[in-house]
Amino acid sequence: MKKKLIALVCALALAVGLVGCSLSTPDSVGTIGEVDISSGLYLLAQFDAYQTAADLASDDQDATKVSSFLKATITVDDATGETAVVSDYVAQKTLENLESYAAIETRFDELGGVLTPDEETQADSYASQLMEQNGDLYKANGIGLDTLKRFERILIKSNDLLEMCYGTDGETPVSDAELTSHLEDEMVYIRYVVVPLYNTSTFAFADDAQSAQMLELAQTAAESCNAAIPDGASAQTSAFSAAVAAALPDIYAVLDGEPSSDASSLSTALLGSDNIDATFSEEGTADAVRALKPGEAAAVRYSSYALMMLVRLDPLDADTLDSLRAQALSDMKSGELQDSIQSYGAQLPHALDSAAMKKMPASKIKNEK
What we know:
Blueprint: H1 2-24, E1 28-32, E2 35-38, H2 39-55, H3 66-70, E3 73-77, E4 82-85, H4 86-110, H5 117-140, H6 145-166, H7 176-186, E5 188-196, H8 208-226, H9 233-253, E6 267-271, H10 273-279, H11 285-290, E7 297-303, E8 306-313, H12 315-318, H13 321-347, E9 350-352, H14 354-358
Antiparallel strand pairs: 1-2, 1-9, 3-4, 5-6, 5-8, 7-8
Helix pairs in contact: 2-4, 4-6, 4-13, 5-6, 6-13, 7-13, 8-9
């Protein structure tokens, strides 16, 4: 009888323990608008918010030590010097993330959006890739594959909303004239090659003098193109391509190397203002690229280990509006769409369960590298 009683007590204790586990992570933390916020989505929003804070950490702050980092103060705006306690920042960004997710889902449904089978397959594929790459970290933070699949679908819906709001048949369509003006005035269309500042066989890096010599040779080639700029993007590309092919052997020879058979193959990029600054981060190079007129070539220091030879072209002479439409629309309207989504999400009715969210505090985040 005594053994049976002990067994019963153990069974009850186990049952209570299991119930306690299930209650510690609720299925949902409530709704924003009519969108259910699952616990997994909440944990993902909180984890992403923490990563944003970690990116703002100073050199003497260690974001892998979650408890201490949450108590730290970070600078959230370099221009104004605004600071915030990490725990407060993470809480605010978590809410903003959830509001954005809910707004995207709501607007997508309001505008009659339906993901195609290909988009759903793409979302599932991206989610699986994320789980393969960082599965242990996601699982440690309570984020499963189903949550990642939902998140990837939200990202695709967000991308679709750009066309649904501002596309040709959208809610407030952008005209071809507006897109054309944006392409020509605000974006830069280039053909280019990247030249490594190291020997591609020995990986010996160029010293300052060698780097300067290689850049000078590249600039001389660019200047030869600018001496007589032909009419039309096709002719300008051909002239630039020939100048690059002629210059590369001498440039590579500075480091006792030689270009590969495809080293002079040109790549293409269409860059908006933010992209230009991000791509050409070396001092003065972004402004130099912006200052180029269609048909003009240049050579600039691209990074600490590479330089770039490029020619700027008239985008609508080099390509068609239809083929550039999506990129131009994204550059022109993505910021506006994001602002409207954030504002819309903040205005949706919030019915979030604070007690449920307290069971998943930021202090439990795992951020081990």
